[in-house]
Amino acid sequence: VIFERNPYYWRKDDQGEQQPYIKELVWQIIESTDNALLQFRSGGLDLTGVSPDSFSLLKREEERGNFTIYNGGPTTSTLFLTFNLNRASRNGKPLVDPIKSRWFNSVAFRQAVSYTIDRQTMINNIYQGLGAPQTSPISVQSPYYAPPEPGGVRTYDFNLEQARTLLQEDGFQWNEAGELLDADGNRVRFTLITNSGNKIRESVGSQMKQDLAKIGIQVDFQPIAFNTLVDKLTDSLDWEAHILGLAGGIEPNNGANVWLLDGGLHAFNQQAGAGQEPLEGWQAAEWETRIADLYIQAAQEVDEEVRKAIYLETQKLTQEYLPFTYLVNQLSLGAVRNTIDGVQYSALGGSLWNIHELTLTQE
User: How large is the greatest C-alpha to C-alpha distance in the chain, in angstroms?
Assistant: First the structure.
């Protein structure tokens, strides 16, 4: 995609010179993060996002490659595990196996899973220390973000004992082989999917498989093509659990599509879309309806302190009932050639948020 400079743009610098200065921007669409890294290292790209698994390599090449790695602090995006909470049927067939649906719709089960995920090991090994545990759907940069303390938002530090206690109180048990069984003796086993080609998510899924095995849960981890994943989440609704992420920002209402009951990104309990086969018996939990109502209420409120109180309640609910089990908030890192001057890197806008001020110098 080629973007050309608008010669009639309204903005000018202090000397009266027309902005932006750069005449053309070529945006290459590269499906694989590995290919993007190769193209940047070979000089085919002038800037790229830096993932934790490539940080060490690129850091060693900064001087030779004539680029700088910028750190914008925590990203505005999220990374999460989601169970399919949809209890509806289509053409008389349940979307989710009723046995597994009972597990997924148990708050105690979801909390136990969250306690079993070792986020700090995930940060150390997969993110190379370049991240922190994520505790909210609202970006850290937002004035509506509620930190765990003193906001009272619940968190889930790695605690196998707490996980086992929750499962036992919910009727789960273990057999002699240490396998987790539900109250009816069914082995707890589910399929976890994510988009193939995303090395971070693939690594997170592999660790999650190992973590949940510690409490006797068998996870069948399957990275699949992104288009297939999208079809499962939005059309067939045929999935059990997935790892994905969403972009964020400073205004929580931009994410209302995730929380409204008929929202297109209400993935954990999606309704049928326009033109799709209808669902029978779709239902929303009380807490789910409450979150949706709060987002509508917040969108209508003009008092900032009241809005903050409303969004605080939404964050308490999301962390208590875990429609999304949030994992790691990585740092926003970007590599930019030193031939681009004026970069003011920001997690809210990356390398190009002040593109009107950027200039190019010859190597």
Answer: 78
CA distance 139 to 330: 12
**AA identity, residue 122:** M
In order, the DSSP letters of 167-205 are HHHTT-EE-TT--EE-TTS-B-EEEEEEETT-HHHHHHH
Helix axes 199-213, 52-60, angle to 10 degrees: 130
The crossing angle, in degrees rounded to 10, of helices 304-321 and 286-300 is: 160
**278 secondary structure, DSSP code:** P
d(CA 118, CA 208): 8
Residue with tokens 């609704």: 237
SS3 of residue 337 by DSSP: strand
Q: Rounded distance, CA 69 to CA 55, Å?
A: 9
The predicted-structure confidence for 291-350, as pLDDT tens digits, reads as follows 999 999 999 999 999 999 999 999 999 999 999 999 999 999 999 999 999 999 999 889
